[in-house]
Design goal:
The structure is a homodimer. Chain A has 12 helices and 12 strands. The first copy, chain A, is an alpha/beta fold and about 325 residues long. The first copy, chain A, has 3 domains: about 45 residues, lambda repressor-like DNA-binding domains (434 Repressor (Amino-terminal Domain)); about 120 residues, Rossmann fold (3-Layer(aba) Sandwich); about 130 residues, Response regulator (Rossmann fold). The first copy, chain A, has a 6-stranded parallel sheet, with helices on both faces. The longest helix of chain A has 17 residues. The interface between A and B is large, with 53 and 53 residues. Chain A binds a DNA duplex (30 and 30 nucleotides) through helix 2 and helix 4.
Chain lengths: ~325, ~325
DNA sequence: TTAGTTTTTGAAAGGGTTTTCCTCGTCGAG
DNA sequence: CTCGACGAGGAAAACCCTTTCAAAAACTAA
């Protein structure tokens, strides 16, 4: 348990009897090193258990090979499929690109340290404009997921949430439903607000009444969905169809419905949002709106990386169309 | 949109007409700076929108002010309450300690870059010994959560999972149950295996038969719990009590039970593990074993930080007792 | 052998901070 | 007045690497 300091590139060079430069070349796989020196250096590295100092590398290269991910930390949201898929996607892309992901869970008010990252991804579930602005101001490249920010010089990738809301609602209406309700996501965040917007638009266009009591706010948590579903079912005239802004919420709504002795889809149709693979199982497979969260996150990292490396010019803006996935949780409304 | 390079400490010094040293002192709040210079420097910093280069700071200080968090990426596990609470806890502690959290989602086989972090936290849901060994080998301090590793020079904090399994099982048995089943977590990971171990131990001690068909493996996902619960209920002689190794699984098991027209706790008792706040809601509040995930994660960060700073000597080993939280999902078994 | 190429190599100049060690004043005590 | 102490500020070394540029070495062809 000697207090020896970590070996540096110089120690390796000395031991291998070559220059520091040569060692650096071996580390970075520059091909112009003779076989003989290559071996000597590798041996020295192994013997000294040398690993390059990442901070020194970053400093010397002027590049950080790290990307920031900032995400709000409110438990209800953080525990959602949505959030986790995004994290997974970013993590996966970072792994294949050999990038470090520095993950910042923010509570909105605290300052963001741009912490030497090449770029920052905002998984902007809740609005956190000021942080994005600060990052732009500080000159770091930004990429925001599932949130359209046109007035700032940032890139984004996301799904068309208005379209998503429309597709879901349109499907329900086309089945003949006129009493259709929505359990929204957090409506202070763009995604939640826009899905609701799509819902309203479609209802209006199809000349179906949009009743305020059919609009109840959730926060993507199962608990909020339970409360919302109960509220909906206790209405004097309960809806015959419910569009929930996430699969988890849809699943919970289904559970509540069945607890009351009603059937899905016979009595009430349910459509979700996400296409969470686990919503295929359960008593009835969930019809939903698919958004490729994992791929969006991966793509965000790739594009951001390309921007940082100067291979692409920002802003890159990419908005995808969500798709209806029909399974078993929707049917025509029951005849009165 | 000029291509100007980020301002450096030297630019600030020049503009404020002081030395680099003085600027550094202001940045680091060293008190020996005169009021006058202090102000000049602060003005220059503001004017130049200067922020210190984190990598240079880390290099010069020889300290990284970043902690690594490595966690397995298998979707079933990653989406669990368990994993997310741990992430939240680490994130929160990092935020208050002003540390960067570099989050590495591993698939087990890929090498871990120790990436210039001061220490690494292993949320060791699945065994990843080799990575821990590599980190120890590389000389970085390690802290593992919810996993006892006594043969390596690492610290850990966690709950006594055997005790947890015992408490749950004991409670069920004490209510009079003799047909008690378990839906395990991933049994290749220590937590899962130990909860099962506690279950078996208690049954043996209380002289209750441990029947192999009452032990079914889950992976913490709701889906696996559904499969497991169905399997259990279709047994010729179904259990009258089920211990699930996570609240999510317990909740799903409850749903399956109720879908079949059975009641909780009248027909079947259910106990979970975690004390996920959302399991209070639902048709019946869940009795569970509480483990303070968030606090454990926070504590892991604090202790690791203390070790890195040399304020504490490793290994720090802390194992907590999980506690039974009685709510409404358990009762005496039905009379035949 | 020689001149001309090509492949390998190394010295040294950064890269942006922190930190150690001085110096230069100023002030109070004697 | 002088000496010592103290407060404030700066020069330069250190941190560990990458990269540029030029030189050395090894070939190749004539």
């Amino acid at each position: 348990m000697s207090k020896r300091r970590k070996a540096s590139i110089e120690d390796v060079a000395r031991r291998a009897k070559v220059s520091i430069t040569t060692v650096s070349r071996v580390i970075n796989r520059v091909p112009t090193v003779s076989r003989k020196n290559q071996v000597k250096v590798e041996e020295a590295i192994a013997a000294l258990k040398y690993t390059p100092d990442v901070n020194a590398q970053r400093l010397a290269r002027g590049l950080s090979n790290a990307v920031g991910l900032v995400m709000p930390g409110y438990p209800g949201i953080f525990h959602s499929f949505y959030a986790i898929e995004l994290i997974r996607g970013v993590g996966h892309a970072c792994e294949t690109l050999r990038l470090d992901m520095v993950f910042h869970i923010t509570n909105g008010y605290n300052p963001l340290s741009t912490a030497g990252v090449g770029g920052i991804i905002f998984a902007d579930i809740i609005e956190n404009r000021s942080q994005i602005e600060a990052a732009v101001e500080a000159g770091v490249s930004c990429m925001v997921i599932n949130n359209i920010v046109d007035d700032l010089d940032v890139s984004y990738i996301g799904v068309d949430n208005i379209a998503g809301g429309r597709v879901a609602t349109d499907y329900l209406v086309s089945l003949g439903h006129t009493k259709v309700a929505i359990i929204t996501g957090n409506i202070r965040a763009q995604a939640g607000a826009q899905r609701l917007e799509g819902f309203k638009q479609t209802l209006k266009e199809k000349e179906v009444a949009v009743r305020p009591e059919y609009i109840v706010e959730g926060d993507y948590s199962r608990r909020s969905a339970r409360l919302a579903a109960e509220q909906l079912l206790e209405l004097p005239e309960p809806p015959t169809a419910i569009f929930a802004a996430s699969d988890d919420m849809a699943l919970e709504a289904m559970t509540v419905i069945m607890e009351r002795g009603l059937r899905v889809p016979d009595d009430i149709s349910v459509v979700g949002f996400d296409d969470n693979p686990s919503s295929i199982y359960g008593p009835v497979a969930l019809t939903t709106i698919r958004q490729p969260l994992f791929q969006m996150a991966e793509s965000a990292v790739r594009n951001l990386n390309a921007i940082v490396l100067g291979k692409k010019k920002p802003p890159i803006r990419n908005i995808l169309s969500p798709q209806l996935v029909v399974r078993e949780s929707c049917a025509r409304p029951p005849i009165q």
